[in-house]
Every structure is written in C-alpha cells, then in structure tokens.
Predict the structure.
Amino acid sequence: MITLRELTKVFGQQVAVGGLSLEIPAGQIVGFLGPNGAGKSTTLKMITGMLKPTSGTAIIAGHDLATDPMAVKRSVGFVPESGALYESLSGLEYLRMVASLYGIAAEQADARIAEFIQFFDLTWDLLTEKLLAAYSKGMRRKIVIISALLHNPPVLLFDEPLDGLDVNAAMGFKTLIQTLAKQGRTIVYSSHILDVVEKVCDRVVIINQGKLVLDGAPAAVSAANGGRSLEEIFTALTGGDQLREKAENFARTFTDHGDRR
C-alpha cells in the first residue's frame, strides 16, 4: 500500500530525509518514530504530496506520487501535528468543506459527519453555533481527525494524533484505528508516546537524521535487544543515552549551585 524507494528531501545543504526505503502492506499499523528533526514530518508531507521529494519514488495505494499526485491525495487521510484549521468557520462548515473537496455529496457527507459526532461525543449545537477559534484543543483535534477519515481513505497518516485528547477519546481513537487496520487500512502512526506505540502498532520504524535505523515488530525488536523496552532501544539508537547523562550532570551542577547559596 505504501512503497518508498530511496526517498530523499534536501533543503539547501541540509539532508532532511536521505534515501528512505520502506514497504508497508495493507492492514498494518506502523509506528513511525524518531527524535525531533529526524525527518518524520518531512516524510509524511512527501507521502501526502505536500512536499516534493528531491529524489526517489513513492507509490501510494498504487499511485505514483510523481505522475499522479491528485490520486495520491484522494487515497490518503492526514492528521498533521499542527492541526491547523480555518478558525473563521464553524466545525460543521469546515467538515462540509472538506467533504466537498473530496467530492462527497452533501447528504452523504452529513450522514458521515453525524456518525463521527456520535463517536467522538460531539453535538450538532457545538458544530453549528461555535467557530473553530472557540474550540478547545481536544475538540479541534477531533475535527482534524474526522476530516482525515471523512472520505474513507485506504491510507491514514497520523502525526501525534492523541495530542489534546482526553483519556476516553484517546482510548476510543486507538480502538478505532486498530479496527480500521483489521478492515485493510494502512496506518502510519508517528508519535513520541512510545508506550502507546508498543501497544497499538504491529511494526516499529525508527529513523534518525533522515536514515532508517530500525524496522521490526515491537516484540521481535525487544527480544533482539535483550528484552529492553522500546524507549530504551529508541534512546540507544538516537543518542538519548548521552542526553540522559547530560541531564543528570546538569541536575547535579544546578543542585550544587543552590547548596552554595
């Protein structure tokens, strides 16, 4: 469902993503991990067609990103980390606009929106009477997720999707994507919450400085690394051990300065 071959993005002299190759089949949830600046968001934006690759190829749901980018966009639902919305619209106006962009008939769109409203414990009054600018962070996140799912795409890309959701909404969302994967959707789940990734994802991919450094099922990866947790493996592969030591040294120095006062 997703095939990347030597996918590369260069900004000036900086290589954000360097020769990334991956194959992700239908029905799989892949945890896409990496430290800040590793190239995760850049990769997701290339897959959606928001950024043009410098080189390499991407085939999404059978469509070549280079030759048929509009077909790729129709095949993908994307929840970006920023979750930007048109704040001058109501929630319903925004979702109807998204549905129209995907060619969903108005009556069908409203029926789908009604189903999502019920699932996410929203109300028609909220969607019609308040502008998005007045929504809480969690409510805005729900609208972004609904807009990504509204056209029922075969490929779903999530960048920190739980940010702002309460416990119940997060639990419901995790169950939802697991069910969608069982129905054949391909899901790329980018997050820094590694314990959720361990529980939800079938496979973990870690990139660092734009390069692939690990790819495997969470249980297999843990077994191959002496039973260590995903967090421990992640920090070892991405330089986190040095950062931990740096933090410990800084804390001791900071405490010493306080004692001298």
In short: The longest strand covers residues 14-24.
